[in-house]
Amino acid sequence: MRRIAAILLALLLVLGLCACGKKTETVKMRDCGVYVTIEADDIYTVSYGTDAGSESTKHADDTPLDAGEVVHFDFAGDAAESSAKAIIDYSICIYDKDLNVLAVESFSSDFSNMARIDITVTADHRIINTSDKLVCGGDTIVQMKTTKPETGVSLAVPTITMPNRPDAAKAINDSIAGINKTFTGEQLESSRKAYKQLAKEADGEDLDDFSQSRYVRVTRGDSTVLSFRMFDKANLGTGSASAITGHNYDAYTGAELKLADITDNTEEFVNACSEDIFSSLTDNSKYADMLFAEGYTDKVKDLISDGHWYMNNEGVVIAINPGEIADSAEGAFEFTVKYDVLAGKIKDEFVPADLDGTTGDITATLAKDADASSLTIVGNEADKDIKSVLVSVSGKIYNISVYSANYYKSSGKYSLEAQLWYCSDLTEGAAFAINKELKTSPSIFIGFTRPDGTYERRLLSADSSGKVTVLDPDGGETGTLISGKLPYSADINGDETQEKISTTTNAEGLLTLKVEAGSSAHEKATKIKTVSSIRLYDIDGDGKSEIFIDGKTADGSTVTYAFKFDGELTACKFGDSDHAYGAVKEFTHSKLYLKRSVNVLGSYTAEVSYTYEGGKYTRDSSVLKLSGTSYVTTTKDLTLSDGKIIPSGYKLKFTETDGSSYIDFTTDHGLTGRIKIKKSDSGWKINGNADTSYFESLPYKK
């Protein structure tokens, strides 16, 4: 909202610009602030806007600003003199001679320590933060390396790189070095003593060799937090000992975070976490026959403390080690307390921000076969001495994790071994190298998050010719992504001749698909204003690829079109329409899966499947199964469709809806039910009343 306000202020400022000359400087400006370098020769006015105000500058004689001219704004006030992080949301707006807006762009920058922010306005009116060294993402990069300091001892050592915050990266690396020093020092000495003691008690019994290992993985990494889960295990001859610890860092300063740093009220935070954990222990059937130690409820509260927690993208994870609340044989417990459960208990700055972008995906090839001339390599370069893999990005993706993996062909399942690499975010044109040779069975796992929050998994292997094969282990395939590669040539109709696929836009800015075959050209118009993805997939197994395009219409709806080319270009039908609502998620034989937004008693994501037969797509079910839901709490009695009443204070999680007349739910105690709903001009109604009147809050996206 603050960014929106900043943009509005910058735009509203145009109303008063007619009477403005170049701003007078009655007080000498400081050297800090925003410096806007003009490269265009047709800009007459530049303004900034923040939630605190706005200002503009222009030539007093109404001539355009000179190409190369630099405009300086200093609006940070006392925040600039602070040594603590001071984030300010602001916008920069440029105007022509008649005060028409040529472009406006919003930014969020840290103005502490008398910072200078450099902005460039290009000749084609793009407004770019040139202080940002990251042009293809890579805010936080973690490279993992397993070291063996002595026989029987191994540990994974993460090395952090933050191109925009090298001091923070150094502080984190130094902290981890200290933690590892304890692992190879005091902790190793203690483990060896335990091994010797057990050897004495074994009285000649054959013992397994001593070993001590540490496995590390990044659980969250962004511009706010970098969290690690460390799992230590020692083989003590006749038994073993293990422990999970969490280490969390401020990604801006590099300081290790304590529990007290992420909440304003530690007691309320601990109570919220413990209540959620007790609910899991009570409701989850896997704990039904488990015996817990006397006084374990108090023990759980005590364990919600430093060293026992780490963050992921879903919430705060509380780690309870073997023997702490139950018999050691039961192993460790890890409970994720979701951020919505901690609303009001955790500081807002530590809740992950919404992701930007529309779609994103990856492709992989052997590094030696890749044309990397147009790519920005993030992280280490490809090792030329082995068959390294180069993974390139289209769109935008987040939370990229690379693991070595074991694949079990008989079951189609896989297990992760060691994390090799992590990156917070990557955008179009970025690529990263995996310096590990592939096996003929899947041996590398890549996980990443799309901008819509969908978590994607890929398994990489080498085929018989050594080429890289990418498998979606969730059963679906994502097709060949060709957006960003147009015009694209491929044989899509099985005639052993390549057709050329491209797009154009009409006078209204709507996309038209074009397929050229020999001397003939074929076009089909769509209602898509902004393209998210264009991909090829042979959905019916006839050896001919269909063309799928998804994106947003002028009214902001997300739609998907499917085209078939068999000498003529045809738009396939979805019922009576030439498009379906939602974006392509994946394909399986004869099925297309879309992900669409559902705004019913909140904003959620639902999966919709269509079966392809006879040249058209038929929706498999009218039911929308919801994902991304969280518990909402009733504030008054709620009458259900069967006449039963849910009283105030109940926690409900919505599970599915038909999008028009009902929505189903389950409670945190396992009860299920259905609520009748009705759409009105003012929103959804329940029993004639606004849906929002029945709940503390509903998670509608603003």
What does it look like?
Helix content is 11%, strand content 44%. With 702 residues, it is mainly β. The chain has 6 domains: 2-129, no CATH class; 134-257, Heat Shock Protein 90; 258-353, Actin, Chain A, domain 4; 360-472, Immunoglobulin-like; 481-589, Lipocalin (Beta Barrel); 629-694, Roll (SH3 type barrels), CATH 2.30.30. Strands 9, 10, 11, 12, 13, 17, 18, 19, 20, 21, 22, 23 and 24 form a 13-stranded mixed β-sheet that branches. Strands 34, 36, 37, 38, 39, 40, 41, 44, 45 and 46 form a 10-stranded mixed β-sheet that branches. Strands 25, 30, 31, 32, 33 and 35 form a 6-stranded antiparallel β-sheet that branches. A hairpin with a 5-residue loop joins strand 42 (638-639) and strand 43. It is globular. The N and C termini lie close together (9 Å).
